[in-house]
Amino acid sequence: MSRPRKTRRINNPPKMKGFRPFGMPACIRESVSLKFEEYESIRLVNYEMLPQEVAAKQMNVSRPTFTRIYNNALNMVAKAFAEGKAIEIEGGNYRLEDNWYRCKKCYKLIRGIENHTKCKDCTAYGESELVKLN
What we know:
By secondary structure, the protein is α/β, with parallel strands linked by helices.
């Protein structure tokens, strides 16, 4: 019996649910799936410019595990670019550091229910318009 996978820690969930290629017919719905932890690995290394050792500690995984997650993420993104496929960010084995919510109307991310009084970009009020992430 294999040992259970450790959950990967994610500090900031993605602001979007994915990407679609520009210039492709809308009827083509092919996509690749990028897991939340794969998105986080790209964000930490390529956006935050952290070394892999530091990024691995932030995600609560070993450096070799982080490298596998990161390389898989790069392969998925490269496949989407080369084949003109959409990228959907979903699933995985992760936990969010804070309680994150997404507004059902404007899709804005909110860290903590106490920080939501009214969305600036829409007319949503209160908890009923929010969806908890994970």
